[in-house]
Amino acid sequence: MAFVKRYLIPRLISFVLVIFLGVTAVFFIPRFTPSDPVQRTIAQLQSQGSYLDPGSMDSMIEDLREMYGLEGSMLQQYGAFWRRVFTGDFGVSFFQFPTPVIELIRTSLPWTAGLLLWATLLSWTLGNLIGGLAGYFSRNRWSRALDTVAMIIRPMPYYIFALMLLILFAYVVRLFPIAGGTDIGRRAALSWAFVSDVLRHAFLPALSMVVLGTAITFQTMKLIVQNVNAEDFVQYAKLGGVKERRIVSRYVIRNAMLPQITNLALALGQILSGALITEIVFSYPGLGTLLFNAIVTGDYNLIMGITAMSILAITTAILVIDLVYPLFDPRVRLM
Amino acid sequence: MRVLRDLLRDYRFAVSFTVLCLLLIMAILSAFSPYDPTFWWHAARDLRPSWTHFLGTSAKGQDIFWQATYAVRNSLIISVIAGTVSRVIAVLVGMVAGYRGRLTDRVLMFISDSFLVMPLFLIIVLLAMLVRERMNLVNLGLLLAFFGWAWDARVIRSQILSLREREFTLTAVLSGTKTMKLVMKEYLPFAAPLIFSTLINNMAWAIGMEITLAILGLSNMDIPTLGTMLQWAISYQALLLGQWWWLLTPVVLAIFLFIALYWLSVSISEYLDPRTRIQRVGAK
């Protein structure tokens, strides 16, 4: 079983190690903060004018320490943190007291998953399709024109690009709403009005991500296809009279897809970072906005909850892609 | 000089070179600014572009043109610090991993892989939150440098791996060349173009990260950079008040800077790769 030993086991090991490192980083980074969340909470309460007598102050500090998982030695806290990660119980949020963190994540997750996942998959598919064709017909004029367009779009920082779209299509030409996930006050229901409202609000953020993402995938795919196209076996197939459709689909694209599958895994890894910026620009009610609010208000439980959950989710997604990979690449399977 | 002349035949190089020179001149102009960028109210507020105020003034009472010269200068400083420091890390890691191989290689590549897989952006945001009070140009540059080397270390490593298999390595080793000298004198010249093009890409990344951190409110808002300039314009609702000259200045400058850096890196790396160079410059 050389396959298991050389492919499967290293990937499982790195899966476990990356989760371990990531969660450890999430645990330690906030603990190096000079500001103590417990003191800060109390100072905040006092500045709002509530009076606390010393006795209740002490019991409150006690409660807050428990709430923030700050009891015991560093090692005990670390152990407790892992228990929290596995049970999904990250305590209560301070910024929306007393909603549990997991509850907040659960309400925002569908928005982010709905927007980001689709946008990533769509731009990956589109980019590969167009890039593959443009790479195969790289001498054609439209292929070069597309290349120039990608050369201009590609280097733009996401934030600036999204801001420009927002200014153009929500402010100068008022085609799309300027912010939010739905109209204010609309309730979730399975009606056409609700669905179309959600789609209308999701259009601009999705467009900004799809255009930029497609440009990036397009360029890589075009380059790879051009390289595969120059390989001897493709030339040989052409000389041997293999049908062009077959050359494109079975010889060129199939080989060129392999690095792109790995790139999809990397793109999935960047989803939450993408969410943070997209959702802030478009005031979209997903995990990114939640995280941003948590950062601004210094809500440690919420920050650690979102970050730990996203590390778990992303590394799992990458592991799944790694496990599916042998289906596409027989060389790995037969190793 | 001939290299430059060849390169200038590529329209992308010509455009990006000109734009970068103009931006550089702008950054240098900041030394002659009549205003201190940290002061407010040194001019009338909300003026449209005119002869006295080239790009108008902001709601903070600052002349936007002179503010922009500082912004370009500071953004470039951050990107140069981030770029060079992370290049040093990437080159060291890439070369050591590529040349030593075996366990060293595995450990170093595992570290850089975990940097790639982790949601780094979140960790940068968390760290930026911690040092928010002490954030300045150098700290921000170093923070970005610490996270910006992983991918490029991998790229450099694969280049070294292929160089190691070449004949001249064997000749050098057999004739008693020291490892350090071999790597520095024989490998570095081969890897230099690659390092240079990753440097430009990394600089663009650093400028983008600076803008993002400023938008999240995680950088020092008193230091004018492209990011903080944009953030001030947004927080003063420049868009809704119709002060396009305030909002558009950092946006347009950033777009020019990014496209110029990207085109520069693409055209240089195409020039350095002889196979594509023949098509582009014409064989001589």
How would you describe what is shown here?
- Chain A is mainly alpha-helical and 335 residues long.
- Chain A contains 14 helices and no strands.
- In chain A, helix 8 crosses helix 10 and helix 12 packs antiparallel against helix 13.
- The longest helix of chain A has 38 residues.
- Chain A is globular.
- The N and C termini of chain A lie close together (9 Å).
- The mean pLDDT of chain A is 80.
- Chain B contains twelve helices and no strands.
- In chain B, helix 2 crosses helix 3.
- The C terminus of chain B is likely disordered.
- At the A-B interface, helix 1, helix 7, helix 11, helix 12 and helix 13 of A face helix 4, helix 5, helix 9 and helix 11 of B.
What structural keywords apply?
heterodimer, A: 335 residues, mainly alpha, 78% helix, B: 284 residues, disordered C terminus
How would you summarize what this structure contains?
The complex is a heterodimer of chains A (335) and B (284). Chain A has 335 residues and is an all-alpha fold.
User: Which radius of gyration of chain B do the C-alpha atoms yield?
Assistant: 22 Å
| Average residue-wise pLDDT of chain B | 80
Number of helices of chain B: 12
Q: Taking Cα atoms only, what radius of gyration of chain A do you get, to the nearest Å?
A: 25 Å
- Topology as H/E string of chain B? HHHHHHHHHHHH
Contiguous runs where pLDDT drops below 50 for at least 5 residues of chain A: none
Largest interface, C-beta within 8 A: A-B, 44 and 37 residues
Order of SSEs of chain A: HHHHHHHHHHHHHH
Measured by DSSP, the beta-strand proportion of chain B falls in: under 5%
- Largest sheet geometry of chain B: none
Number of helices of chain A: 14
Please tell me what the overall shape of chain B is. Answer: elongated
Oligomer: heterodimer
How many strands of chain B? 0
Number of strands of chain A: 0
Decide which structural class fits the backbone of chain A: mainly alpha
Helix content of chain B: over 70%
